[in-house]
TrEMBL record:
Belongs to the HesA/MoeB/ThiF family. It comes from Chryseobacterium indoltheticum. Keywords: ATP-binding, Nucleotide-binding, Nucleotidyltransferase, Transferase. This is Molybdopterin-synthase adenylyltransferase. Homodimer. Forms a stable heterotetrameric complex of 2 MoeB and 2 MoaD during adenylation of MoaD. Catalyzes the adenylation by ATP of the carboxyl group of the C-terminal glycine of sulfur carrier protein MoaD. The gene is moeZ_3.
């Protein structure tokens, strides 16, 4: 049942009305990622009265999330984000049906999950998942509301919707090929001001509402950018001619056979993952060197002796490595994984190469607990 009093302020808007509210109530929206972008998206779509909202995320709430993921509180630390989100959103608006999937979206489950939804919202933070979502949304003809953040800058766009000229674009029109591993750090490594994902996530929610209700001029085939340091904002028409057909699945069967980690240059063979609890013990093994692949000015510094070689300079400085047991570290574990991959490919079987899962953030968190 639609309680009109709850939505009265938006129903009375010119060019909105009860018909737009009914469209929201009938809509099914999937939010992929319940992090910095996903939290404001989920809050505003729930408050606005979108009838059916799906959430997929396999992560748990951590202390470092709370400065930007404002759907959660300190009491939620350690809980699955999907479960904590369900509890909060259901309390906010019990009229909305919330469906949760507490796992990572993959080529194995994406088609089945996405099938039931009208609109897909990309609130992810890594390139393999972005390209995966872009491809499956294109193949299933599902509108994709894109958002991304980097330090003080954010982007938003709508893909897979035909515009007035009969054209449609997708993420690959903006970025035909994935960047090289480590080329674009995520917020774990590069940092982010907590309000930025709130701004971009709110824009994503706004564009979703506009698209569903037919209100205003959504960002169809357009990219909006904003820099919150000076509020420089721009809207660009997405070029339609940049789409490469190289390595792009043309059917759902091809999609399900695509390795998006490999597509984005991420390989796993031969790399040993070590936990924070194992780190110090392994670091004390004779003939061991710790290589920090962060930039030299990044904090906090390791307390153990280490060799500092930024990831971008790793290949050119292999001569500095004079020990056979190598542990690669970074802020969050993502650059160290790539660094371990590079070393594994070059140094081959003569070395034992591992990387610290969760990075120095996780290491310091466990030390301080």
């Amino acid at each position: 049942m639609l309680h009109l009093e709850r939505y009265h302020r938006q129903i009375t808007l010119k060019s909105f009305g009860i018909e737009a509210q009914k469209k929201l109530a009938s809509a099914k929206v999937l939010v992929v990622g319940a992090g910095g972008l996903g939290c404001p998206v989920l809050q505003y779509l729930t408050a606005a009265g979108v009838g059916n909202i799906g959430i997929i995320d396999d992560d748990k709430v951590s202390l470092s999330n709370l400065h930007r993921q404002i759907l959660f509180t300190s009491n939620d630390i350690g809980k699955l984000k999907t479960e904590a989100a369900f509890e909060r959103l259901n309390a906010m608006n019990p009229e909305v049906q919330i469906n949760i999937v507490s796992e990572r979206i993959t080529t194995k489950n994406a088609v089945e999950i996405i099938l039931d939804y009208d609109v897909i919202i990309d609130c992810t933070d890594n390139f393999p998942t972005r390209y995966l979502l872009d491809d499956v949304s294109r193949l299933m003809a599902k509108p994709l509301i894109f958002g991304a953040i980097y330090q003080y800058e954010g982007q938003a766009a709508i893909f897979n919707v035909i515009d007035a000229d009969g054209f449609t674009t997708n993420y690959r029109h903006l970025f035909p090929e994935p960047p090289k591993p480590g080329e674009v750090p995520d917020c774990n490594d590069a940092g982010v001001l907590g309000v930025l994902p709130g701004i971009i996530g709110t824009i994503q929610a706004t564009e979703t509402i506009k698209l569903i209700t037919g209100t205003g001029n959504p960002l169809i085939n357009k990219l909006m950018t904003i820099n919150i340091l000076d509020y420089q904002t721009a809207i660009f028409q997405i070029p339609k001619e940049n789409l490469t057909k190289k390595n792009i699945p043309s059917t759902l069967k091809e999609f399900e056979q695509t390795n998006y980690e490999l597509h984005c240059g991420i390989k796993q063979k031969g790399i040993i993952n070590i936990s924070s609890s194992e780190f110090k013990e392994i670091a004390e093994i004779p003939d061991t060197v710790i290589i920090d692949v962060r930039e030299t000015d990044e904090l906090p510094k390791l307390e153990l002796p280490y060799l500092s070689i930024p990831l971008s300079q790793l290949k050119e400085n292999l001569n500095q490595i004079n020990k056979k047991n190598i542990i690669v570290v970074c802020q969050s574990g993502k650059r160290s994984f790539i660094g371990a991959q590079i070393l594994t490919e070059i140094l081959r079987q003569d070395y034992t190469i591992s990387h610290l899962e969760g990075g120095i953030i996780q290491l310091n968190q466990e030390i301080n607990e």
